Amino acid sequence: MFTQTEPSVGRYDTPIDQPRQRSGLEYRSIAYVAAAADFLYLLGSCAIGFTGYQYVAFGSAPDPSLFIGLGLVMSTIFLLAMHSTQAYSPESIQLLRPQIRLICILVPSTFAFLLTVIFFLKIGENYSRGAMLITAVISLAGLISMRCFWHWYLPSATAAAYFRMRRVLLVCHEDFAVEHWRHEAMASGMSLVQTLHLSGDSLLSASALERLWQSEADHLDEVFIVWRDPNVANLELYLSELRRSVLPVNVIFDGVVGRLTNAPARKLGSMTAFQTQRPPLSLYERGTKRAFDIAFSLFAIVSLLPLLVAVAIAIKLDSKGPILFKQVRKGYGGRPFRILKFRSMTVMEDTGDIRQATRNDPRVTRIGAVIRASSIDELPQFWNVLRGEMSIVGPRPHALAHDALYDSLIAKYAYRRHVKPGLTGWAQINNCRGETPNIEKMEERIFHDLWYINNWSFWLDMKIVVRTSIQIWDIGKAY
């Protein structure tokens, strides 16, 4: 191991549990193996589907040219679609649920495309619908089974060094999570064989870097530098010296710069711009979201009408006061609206000084405790959704007093009003439901709200709705 002679500048560490061998297949070649396996399996499933159906239905063998030609076209289309989404990279192929979801979309889509072509070419009499259906089922089942195999096999095979891994040097600051990075690097086919820790603001001298790559170049395949300091002049010093080596050099930005470079990028001539704040939803996205809001709200109101009536009667019998509680909240763009709830307290606060409900709050009525714990008190907000003031999914709206407080304490707080507020949201299904007793809890909620805004999709809304319907039965989280 190379020993640093300037301990005040940095230190070298060699991680434990290194791979025992460098023989065998390159790790990155897993992509080609997986693609070839899919191609051959789809071709085989087409042969099995058509041959099996022909023997069972007619007791004879089909014309091989039919299913071979169809299988080649089907396999090629599927592989090209998977490749376009980078689904064959070793990192992606280990992600079981995304892979299964992609397969369940692409296989039916491929068959639908082929059936459309067969229909327009008027050659449908040559292809049995039963044989096509059997082939589709076999294809889906086999591809999903292979993804389960890759998900199980690749981590254990990597840990056992069955593949030839790329040996890397990591240059990073002292408090960087090296162990976490090492595990992520292993999933990408890299073995961390040496780590250089930089101490504080000190710089590693050019001579030390030169000694490093001269002594270690034969034992390394790649260099990674994790850079947190916004002073890129210091980074340029390292990069200039490392250019003497033939090793590939990669820079990972940490901290604020890292968050910027993770944002979506676009080219402006010869320059690159990073979008730190996404624009409002497009007309199509707003239309899709609004159509779902209306359909879901109407269905919920009609199906839950007996429950709504029963709760209204119970509230009226339990305590004095109106059935519904109305409070001014800020909606999209900061526009005020009156949010509706079933009254669950003995008070009707709508002033500049509103205290959040706490566990065993004396203001909560007997019926209120039940409907708050099960979130039934929020059901009247389906009317706010129909009126266009809210959405099914979005950041939860807060009381005006809390808006005024957190606007001044949290820099990005107002950004959550770039979309309509919702009955449920990404924060609520990530354990940020209920009381926010301190600024840290509110910052956590805002973090999830902003992530939702920047990553919105229709399928994300569906995921949140499904998870909310499951979590709503956990009545201990709201009070």
Describe the structure.
The chain is of the alpha/beta class. The protein folds into three domains: 135 residues, no CATH class; 110 residues, Response regulator (Rossmann fold, 3-Layer(aba) Sandwich); 189 residues, no CATH class. It has 16 helices and 13 strands. It has a five-stranded mixed β-sheet, sandwiched between helices. β4, α6 and β5 form a beta-alpha-beta unit. α7 packs parallel to α8. It is flat, with a radius of gyration of 30 Å.
Based on DSSP secondary structure assignment, what is the total number of beta strands?
Answer: 13
Strand/helix succession:
EEHHHHHEEHEHEHEHEEHHEEHHEHEHH
State the helical fraction.
40-55%
Assembly state here? Answer: single chain
Structural class: alpha/beta
Low-confidence runs of at least 5 consecutive residues: 1-9, 14-22
How big a fraction of the residues is strand?
Answer: 5-15%
Strand order in the largest sheet: 1-5-4-6-7
State the domain count: 3
Radius of gyration: 30 Å
The main sheet comes to: 5 strands, mixed
> How many distinct helices?
16
Span of the ends, CA to CA: 59 Å
Give the mean pLDDT.
80
The gross shape turns out to be: flat
Which keywords apply here?
13 strands; 479 residues; two-stranded parallel ribbon; five-stranded mixed sheet
Concise account of the structure shown:
The protein has 479 residues and is of the alpha/beta class.
Task: Chart the SSEs and their pairings.
Layout: E1 10-13, E2 25-26, H1 30-58, H2 64-84, H3 90-93, H4 96-120, H5 129-159, E3 163-164, E4 166-173, H6 178-187, E5 190-198, H7 206-216, E6 222-227, H8 232-242, E7 249-253, H9 255-261, E8 265-268, E9 271-274, H10 283-303, H11 305-318, E10 324-330, E11 336-342, H12 366-373, H13 381-386, E12 391-393, H14 400-409, E13 422-424, H15 439-454, H16 458-471
Parallel strand pairs: 2-3, 4-5, 4-6, 6-7, 12-13
Antiparallel strand pairs: 1-5, 8-9, 10-11
Helix pairs in contact: 1-2, 1-5, 2-4, 4-5, 7-8, 11-12
